[in-house]
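Entry:
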Amino acid sequence: MTIKDIVVNLSVTEGSGFTGDYAVSVAGALDTHLTGIAFVYDPVVPVAATGYLPPEVIETQQRDSQDAAKATIDRFTAAASRAGISIEPTMLPASFAGAGDQFGLIARRFDLAIVGQAEPDKGAVEELIAESALFESGRPVIVVPYIQKAPLKLDRVMVCWDGSRPAARAIADAMPILERAGQVEVVIVTRERGKQDEIPGADMGQHLARHGLKVDVKRIVGSGIDVADALLSHAADASADFIVMGGYGHSRLREFVLGGVTHAILRSMTAPVLMSH
């Protein structure tokens, strides 16, 4: 797989420029085109409203949303200009409920999508956008922690491997990034010591080494500890700059429900994570 065309969701929430800045650094490192999407959100009618809002209230909300999107686009454009990359800044109308589905559809036409981690208590729409990008786009997604300040760094990349289809897909999708890594560590969480956790002849560490990557394999005994906690703890101990893993979930009445590990990682991640489903 090659990555030549990236799309990023530019959160219009004040102080949320971290995703756009990180996307610019990814596009620069991979020498790709970058499209930035800033949604202009529809006015919100309070649940307790009687069905009528004064026109001036609606106009004020529309103006504020437009201004927020424009400020976000201006910041993104300035960052891209400093980095010297090719971009396409775009403002699109959307409802808070429909932005996730809209972004998921848009992301199908790109090689990679980049979204921000939802901030606690104020990132509901970002959470919907991230989940839709992961489950509806058919493309790999990089989720950027809201605490992220540094640009793309690939000195130590952690690959989470459990033999599953989503994990295999994520590793294949991440190959252009893994090829730029200083060191790749394949991390396997096992439930008990001595358990055979690799398919004979299909060792993922050997597979990546055949691509010319510098690879270590680390097996973590996860008995008595949640898998997500084990992965996050190891990522912190190993000072991982970037994580690659499968995104897990299942459909329930056409709505995707996040798997336990995926949900926990998205809530508590401290390094950017590339996920594929």
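The domain at 5-144 is CATH 3.40.50.620 (Rossmann fold).
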